[in-house]
């Protein structure tokens, strides 16, 4: 069991590391096998996508009006809105809570379609990326890796002592 926890912890640390490095190099939506994630920071898609939700995004070969897509704007920021139209290589989106649509942009800027929404989880992810959050990850990881070993040793030691009496 300790081995499985160690592997899981290592995978999580590697994923966080990969994501941090990719974002530092200018990729706002790092993906693994076409899958990525983003956190909702504004209410432009309320109530469908609440602020603080974690979005699971998948890169598709084609997109259709009505789908919720994430695209990269000219400043390199990610925007997640509903696709209104897609014609001649140009896309238009609109936030469900917004009064007006977004300016048209090149469809090649679409990074993926929203496949799953986890309300509130994004807030935790953002916190884990802060210094206190990273310390918490390391502390919990260390506890999961080392404490079970010591508990098992203690149980065996108590068991041996109990057998002698």
Q: Termini distance?
A: 31 Å
Uncertain runs are none
Nearest-integer average pLDDT: 85
- Topology, number of strands: 7
Question: Could you list some keywords that capture this structure?
Answer:
165 residues, alpha+beta, Umud Fragment, subunit A, 2 domains, seven-stranded antiparallel β-sheet, elongated
Overview of the molecule:
There is one protein chain. The chain is α+β, with helices and mostly antiparallel strands. The protein folds into two domains: 1-30 and 130-165; 33-118, Umud Fragment, subunit A. The chain has three helices and seven strands, in the order H-E-E-E-E-E-E-E-H-H. The protein has a seven-stranded antiparallel β-sheet.
Summarize the structure.
Helix content is 39%, strand content 25%.
What topology does this entry show?
Layout: H1 2-24, E1 35-39, E2 54-58, E3 68-72, E4 78-87, E5 90-94, E6 105-106, E7 110-118, H2 121-128, H3 131-164
Antiparallel strand pairs: 1-2, 2-7, 3-4, 3-7, 4-5, 5-6
């Amino acid at each position: 069991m300790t081995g499985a926890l160690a592997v899981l912890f290592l995978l999580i640390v590697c994923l966080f590391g990969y994501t941090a490095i990719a974002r530092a190099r200018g990729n706002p939506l790092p993906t693994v096998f076409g899958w990525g994630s983003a956190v909702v920071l504004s209410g432009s898609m309320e109530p469908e996508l609440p602020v603080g939700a974690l979005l699971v995004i998948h890169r598709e070969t084609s997109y259709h009006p009505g789908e919720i897509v994430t695209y990269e704007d000219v400043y390199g920021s990610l925007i997640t809105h509903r696709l209104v139209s897609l014609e001649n290589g140009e896309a238009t989106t609109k936030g469900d809570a917004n009064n007006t649509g977004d300016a048209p942009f090149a469809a090649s800027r679409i990074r993926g379609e929203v496949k799953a929404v986890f309300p509130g989880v994004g807030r935790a992810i953002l916190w884990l990326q802060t210094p206190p959050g990273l310390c918490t990850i390391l502390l919990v990881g260390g506890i999961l890796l080392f404490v079970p070993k010591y508990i098992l040793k203690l149980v065996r030691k108590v068991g041996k002592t109990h057998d002698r009496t």
